[in-house]
Structures are given as C-alpha cells and as structure tokens.
Amino acid sequence: MIDWQALQSALHLLGSSYSAWLLTIPGIALGMLGGAIPGVSSALILAIVLPATLWMSLLSSLIFMTAIYTGAAFGVAIPAILMGVPGSPAAVATSFDGYPMTQRGEHNVALGLALAASTLGHMGAYLILFFGIGVISHAVLKLGPLEMLLLMLWGLTLIAALRGRYVTRSLVSGLIGILIATIGLSPRDVIRGTFNFPELLDGVPIVPAMIGLFAASELFNLAGTSYLVSRSDLRTVRIREIARGMVDALRYPIVILRGLVIGATIGGLPGVGAAVCNLVSYAETRRGDKHPESFGKGNPKGVIAAESGNASSEAGSMATLLALGIPGGASSAVMLAALSLHDVTSGPQFLDTSKDVVYAIILNNFVQGAIMLALGLGLIGLMANVIRIPVRILIPVILVLATFGSYGLSGNMAGPLTMVVFGLVGWLMQRHDYSVPACVVGLILGGKVEANLLQTYQISGGWQFSYFAGRPIAMVLLLLLLFSLFSRPIMQWWRRRRAASPVAL
Amino acid sequence: MLREREHVPDWEHLLFAALLLAFIVWYLWTAAAASLTFSNLILIGPVGAVAAGLLLYIASVEIFGRTPVASAASIQADVAASAAHGRFRSGSLATIAALIGLFGAYVVAIPYIGFDVATFLFVGATLWLLGERNIAVLLSLALGIAVALSLAALTLLTFPMPMAVARAVWSGL
User: Fold this and answer.
1) Is B89 close to A401, i.e. CB distance below 8 A?
2) N or C, which terminus of chain A has less Cβ within 10 Å?
3) Structure pTM?
4) What percent of chain A is modeled with pLDDT above 70?
5) DSSP designation for A212
6) Residue A190 — φ and ψ, nearest 5°?
7) By three-state DSSP, how is residue B9 classified?
8) Best residue of B13, B20, B28 to probe chain A, by most A CBs closer than 10 Å
9) Does residue A337 or residue A272 have the better pLDDT?
10) Least confident range of A71-80, A227-236, A337-346, B38-47
11) A500 CA to chain B: closest CA distance, Å?
C-alpha cells in the first residue's frame, strides 16, 4: 500500500529542501491572516501569491500553497465565531454554533474548539491520503483518454450543479470557460479567435485571467461594503481559555472522525470542496445527535463538526488534483495553474513518476498541522484584530499587488490587461449568478478536454462502437455524467407533475 | 383571489446573456472560417452549440418568467450566500463602476505615466473613492505602497517595468 522507495526519496527531498520548510510557516500565517479577513477567500489569497511561485521549485510552490490552504481553513473560522460573519463559504456552518457561543461570552473556548478540530481534521485526512495514494496511483493508470475526457466533463458538470444557484447558468459558464481555453493556436495548427493579437497565439494567459476572475472581481464586489463592527465585537482573547477549548474538543473524537472522513472522501469529488464539506459534516453530526435541537444555539459539537469537515477537505481535493489533474474547487484550480507554471501536467502519469513529490507534500502537511496549532495560538490576538482592517485600504493594495504579479508573469502589459478584462467579466458573472469557479475550471481543463477528445477519436478509429463497448469504466462514468446532468431536471419535472395532479386519498 | 405577481424581466441580465451569446457565435464563426474541418470543430462546435442553446433557454425563462423550482442545493447555496453577506452593507453600483473604471484606467496608463506614478495616483484615488477623507493617511499610504512596489519591481522583476521617476532615483542612489 505504501511505496517505501518513494517514501524514502520523499524524506530525502524534504531533508534537502530547506526552502520548502522556510515557506511553510509564512504560508500558514498568510492563509490564517488572509482567511480571517471577511470576504477574502483562500482562492483569492492563492491567486494573488500565484505569480510568486514561479520563482520557487515545484515542491516548494506546492508546499507553500497547501500551507496557505491549511492556514485559511482555520482563519475563516475566526470572523465566523467572533462576528457571525463567515470569512468564506467554507466557514458558514462554523458560525451556526460558534457565534451563539460568542454571544454567551465563550468565544475563546469556541476558537480553541475550532483550532483543535481544524488541526486534527487536517492531519487525519492527510493520514488517509498517505495510506490511500498508492492504491489511487495504480487505479488511475488504467484510465485512458476517453475516461479522462468523461471525468473532466463530469467534474465540470458537478461544479456547475453544486456551486451555483442556477444550474443552467453555471453550465454556460463552464462551457464558455472551455471555449476561451481553445483561443489561440489549436492542436491542429489552426488560429482561432485571437482578434489578430500575436500575444493570444499561445492562448489566453490563464493565470492573469484567473487572478482577474477570482481576485479582482471579488474586490470590486467588496467596494463600498464595510462590515458593521459593533462594540460587542471588540472581544479580548485569552490563551488559557482557548487551550481549555482545545482540550474540550478531544472529548468528541467521533465528531472529529466523522468530519474528517466526510471531508477526505467527498472533498475529493470535483465541485464539492470545503464549502460543501463543512455543511455536510455539520448536518450529519446534528442528525446523529441525541439533542439535535441544541444545535444552532452554541453547541460545541457544531463548531467541531464544521471545522473538521472544512479542514479535511484539503486532503481530498489534493488527491483528485494530483491523481486526475481535475480541480475540486476554486482553491485547487489555482494550484493546478501553479503546476502548469512549472510545466507539470498533474494526472495519472505525474502521480506515477513523481510519487516522491506527492509523499513529500503529504509528510509536510502532517507537520503543517502542528505548526498551525502553534501559530494559531500565537497569532490569534493579531487575527482577532485583522478582521477590523478597513476594506477601503485592502482593496487598492490587493489590486496593485495583483497588477504587479500579473506583469511579473507575462513580462509585458498583456498580463495586467487580461486581468482587468477578466475581472470585469467575473464581476458581471457574479452579478448575474453565473458560476465563476465553473468558468475557471473550464478555462483550465479546456485544452486537455480537446486533446483527449481528439485522441479518443483517433484511437477509436472514428467513433467505432466496439471501442466504447470494451471500456466498462467509461460506461460507468458516462452514466454518472448523465445522472448529474439530468437528475435535477427529471426530479423537478416529477415534483411538478405530482403537485399538478389532484391528490388521491 | 390572489393574482399572480407579474413577472418583470431583468433587462441587464438579458443584455449580459446576449453578450455571451454574441461571443459564442462570433467565436464559432471565426473558428469555422479559419478551418472548416472536423478535427478543428470537434470540441468547440458541440460546446458552442450547447452553450448557445442553454443561453436561449435562460433568456426565454427571463422573458416569459417560468421560474424553475428551487432545489435543495440551490436553497442551501442561498442560505450560505445570505449568511455570508448577512452583516455586510452592500456596495453601491456607482462606487463599484467607478472602481472598475479607475482600475482599468490605471492599467492602461502604466506604459504612459509609469508604474510608480500610476500606482500612487490609483491608490490615492481609490482610497478617496472608498471614503478615506484623512489626507495625511491617504497620501502616506499611496506614497508608501507606490515606493515599496516600485522598489520591488526594480529589484525582483526580470522584465523592466515602465517607470517615470523610480528608475532614475534608484540608479542615482
């Protein structure tokens, strides 16, 4: 189950790469502080630091980004608990019981519960990944271009179906993302949709486009907003009480375990991710509890369930990202772009040939859990204050940083200009409920979808039926794809029919 | 008897959907004009057609107002969104439009007035737009950020960033 040789060279890699370790602590701190600012999601922070990863080695950049991801999982809980404002959708369920605890004056205990649950959830889920990655790497090698094509399309459909308010609009965003990805010189040497700009021959620069879609558009939305900090929000932080909360969390191992299993497994499904995992973990814990009515009123188990579900989803989405090259959500989409900056295409081949890098990331993440615990305690006072940074200062600073970063990537004004255009597009999409993550995932996968489609067409001898009939995994994937596409419309039609028909009995 | 609430189409959304549709049609047209082969259109043909069809459906729902039945997932997303924004005061459209305009102007102006000066002006103007009225804070923040990032650009970036004064000052030091 464990590839000992790869594990050994992973230890060697980590032992010889001090820069990777040097980046772990600032990464976690940045994720925590950024995540603590309401309205700043982990995807936004990752998108802003993405250009800087160009100067790092592959391992260092992946470790830096997972460290940010790890820190943000706890950071977003802070405003959720102290102010009842989830820093991002990943902490929505944390606020359900965290904020009532704050109103009772137990905010320090709630923060301790969240910190312990995040840490244990994170480490536990990576432990599952540690034992599972060997099996996964063997299984994914059996996937051909047809299976990869269907997996990508299924992933896109799931993202559209789960993340947006309107499935049709989210599907349109995903499809438009695919179309934008095919701009430029095609695999068959045809120039498509470049507006005669030579800069677009290599395609739309994905990273600046992503910074625009995720970061600039979010910042435009934040303009003019100011969260209302009332007197009661100015709360003192007491380390001793936080420590008591951390010990309290250990009294509910089943809740933590349930959260981390949910996060590690369903977090691996494309489109699921932290935003869904914390809600599912919370709902499952409440359903199985003897006193479900106590949830939402400051039940510590609610905070633990939400945070362990949220923190453990990172390991699940990393598994999908590394094994299949399909991002689970916004944050892993940015990481996929970081891989492409290093000319690495993640997927079955990458997992097979670079298992040492994957083990190194997993091992580093165990340590990240411990660092998060220490940094969380040390920085919690600072984080409780960072949530009060005025948005009006944050917006110009991050926009200027984004411009700087996208210029650094492209080396000319094409990067910043792309970012502005996509910032506007992303803002318009959000305004009209077209899913931005679906568009980004389409943008990232579009090129691979086309390549796999062309390859399938060639291998199957021009759509020979016998080729498809001999691939049972592809058939299952096709059924899953059709199910996620049509299950909702069929259910809606069924409900409408039942509602319309007169009630018998 | 209760009368059904009259449906009012969201014209702004319709305009946005029309723009997306126009992009798809234009893109398919230019791609087909470049090469009308099967392998060129194998992906973008079907993808464009499905996206266009979905957009027409979305537009028809918007115009004729057949609201789809909300599903559990969409309700969950609604709850999450409203919880996330529950205690936010939403920004006015005019402020957002002005910010987008300022940001666009900033990026376009960099090659002409330099990254250093453009950054100073953009940060100052944005702080003013978003309600910072303390001139000392405004100027010192704008200057601090412009100086720090210009220094970073001069020392870290391998590509020369257009500068008005920062490069001359830096090389004179």
Assistant:
1) no
2) C
3) 0.86
4) 95
5) I
6) -105, 135
7) coil
8) B20
9) A337
10) A227-236
11) 13
CA neighbor of A398 nearest in space, from B154, B85, B130, B97: B130
Residues of chain B with C-beta less than 8 angstroms from the C-beta of A223: 91, 95-96, 99, 129-130
Does the structure show a pLDDT above 60 at A342? yes
Q: Which residues of A touch B91 (CB under 8 A)?
A: 221-225
Tell me what the mean pLDDT of segment A343-372 comes to.
92
The 3-class secondary structure across A100-164, one letter per residue, is: HHHHCCCHHHHHHHHHHHHHHHHHHHHHHHHHHHHHHHHHHCCCCHHHHHHHHHHHHHHHHHHHC
Q: How many CB atoms lie within 10 A of CB A467?
A: 16
Distance in angstroms (rounded) separating the CA atoms of residues A94 and A80: 6
A180 neighbors A449 (Cβ within 8 angstroms): no
B54, B149, B156: residue with CB nearest A172 = B54
User: What whole-number distance in Å separates Cα of residue B72 and Cα of residue B80?
Assistant: 12
Q: Which amino acid is at A366?
A: F
Instruction: Report DSSP state, residue A50.
Output: G
CA distance A388 to A229: 8
Q: What gap in Å lies between CA B32 and CA B27, rounded to an integer?
A: 8
Considering chain A, what is the average pLDDT of its residues? Answer: 88
Q: Which of A179, A219, A495 to mutate to test the interface with B (most CBs of B within 10 A)?
A: A179
Instruction: List, for residues A103-159, the tens digit of each pLDDT value.
Output: 888 999 999 999 999 999 999 999 999 999 988 888 888 888 999 999 889 888 887
Distance, CA of B166 to CA of B173 (rounded, Å) = 11
Our CA dihedral for A248, A250, A255, A261, rounded to 10 degrees, sits at 140
Q: How far apart are CA A47 and CA A442, in angstroms?
A: 17
Using the 8-state DSSP alphabet, how is residue B158 labeled?
S
Q: What pLDDT score does A271 carry?
A: 67
Nearest CA in chain B to A491: B71
Q: How many CB atoms within 10 Å of residue A94? A: 33
Of A434, A491, A184, the closest CA to residue B51 belongs to A434
Alpha-carbon span A153 to B88, nearest angstrom: 36
Burial class (CB in 10 A: 0-12, 13-18, 19+), A244: middle
